From TrEMBL:
This is Secreted frizzled-related protein 1. Signal peptide: none annotated. The keyword RNA-binding does not apply. It comes from Nothocercus julius. Residues 158-278 form the NTR domain. Keywords: Developmental protein, Differentiation, Disulfide bond, Glycoprotein, Secreted, Signal, Wnt signaling pathway. InterPro entries: Frizzled/SFRP (IPR015526), Frizzled_dom (IPR020067), Frizzled_dom_sf (IPR036790), Netrin_domain (IPR001134), Netrin_module_non-TIMP (IPR018933), SFRP1_CRD (IPR041760), TIMP-like_OB-fold (IPR008993). Belongs to the secreted frizzled-related protein (sFRP) family. Gene3D superfamilies: 2.40.50.120, Frizzled cysteine-rich domain (1.10.2000.10). Residues 25-141 form the FZ domain. It is found in: Secreted. It comes from the Eukaryota. Disulfide bonds join 40-86, 105-129.
Length: 286
């Protein structure tokens, strides 16, 4: 379309090598942030540079890689999460690349990595904070001391259980998960700081890494979940939609919903589930 071509080859940074993006070696395009780039639509500006600062070349790749992060955004672990991630996934159109400030990266990492660990994720190498600038022009939010968000106390709901019953959010979880099951639960036990969930009946909606023959013996773990509340598990007398991913030999629960056919949003999800609109690229977290 009418995207303006930027050619940034001439810009050579004099402040150290941030993530190989010291200058733009390829012609860049300034394009509109599409509505289905959920991570960054509504971030506060409406155009972005492609390829982005993570070297994603196409919008399809950006959407897919960004989709893994949308569930984290919904957990509100830090007020700067969206600004930080979008400064890399959907950078503002400027004459030269401007990276997020190192302190912003550190503040978001320190607040969000504990939440990510519930899902079996660690802060990935591509977002290592020491590659970002400390003193140069950089993308910030508010003054560095404003990043001390009060830490929630131990009564905070386990993040995988802290879900809105909204059809879009359920589809986002489905897209970001490796497997999805409809199940009834026999029992929930504590084990090594985790909650262990033993299914009674189970039906696979998306098998992912689970082999059919292993479905019978399947147990799920709510990572670090022994002592945080998970209100869905207060009453085991109905069916659940459970999504998750495999980490080493364990199957981790990453989202749980009551299977509630009377709920309008859940009904909408069931329609969408037949053909979820998930972007298809290899996942960023592999």
């Amino acid at each position: 379309g009418g995207a303006s071509e930027y050619d940034y080859v001439s810009y050579q940074s004099d402040v150290g090598p941030y993530g190989g993006g010291r200058f733009y070696a390829k012609p860049r395009q300034c394009v509109a942030i599409p509505a289905d780039l959920r991570l960054c639509h509504g971030v506060g500006y409406d155009k972005m540079v492609l390829p982005n600062l993570l070297e994603h070349e196409s919008m399809g790749e950006v959407k897919h890689q960004a989709s893994s992060w949308v569930p984290l955004l919904n957990k509100n672990c830090h007020m700067g999460t969206q600004v930080f991630l979008c400064s890399l996934f959907a950078p503002v159109c400027l004459e030269r690349p401007v990276y997020p400030c190192r302190w912003l990266c550190e503040a978001v990492r320190d607040a969000c990595e504990p939440v990510m660990q519930f899902f079996g994720f660690f802060w990935p190498d591509m977002l290592k904070c020491d590659q970002f600038p400390q003193d140069d022009v950089c993308i910030a939010m508010t003054a560095p001391n404003a990043t001390d968000v009060a830490r929630p106390k131990g009564t905070t709901v386990c993040p995988p259980c802290d879900n809105e019953m909204k059809s879009e959010a359920i589809v986002e979880h489905l897209c970001a998960s490796e497997f999805a099951l409809k199940m009834t639960i026999k029992e929930v036990k504590k084990e090594n700081g985790d909650k262990m969930i033993v299914p009674r009946k189970r039906k696979a909606l998306k098998l992912g890494p689970i082999r059919k023959k292993n479905l019978k013996k399947l147990v799920l773990f709510l990572k670090n979940g022994a002592d945080c509340p998970c209100h869905q598990l207060d009453n085991l007398g109905h069916h659940f939609l459970i999504m998750g991913r495999q980490v080493k030999t364990q199957y981790l629960l990453t989202a749980i919903y009551k299977w509630d056919k009377k709920n309008k949003e859940f009904k909408k999800f069931m329609k969408k589930m037949k053909s979820p609109d998930c972007p298809t690229f290899p996942s960023v977290f592999k």
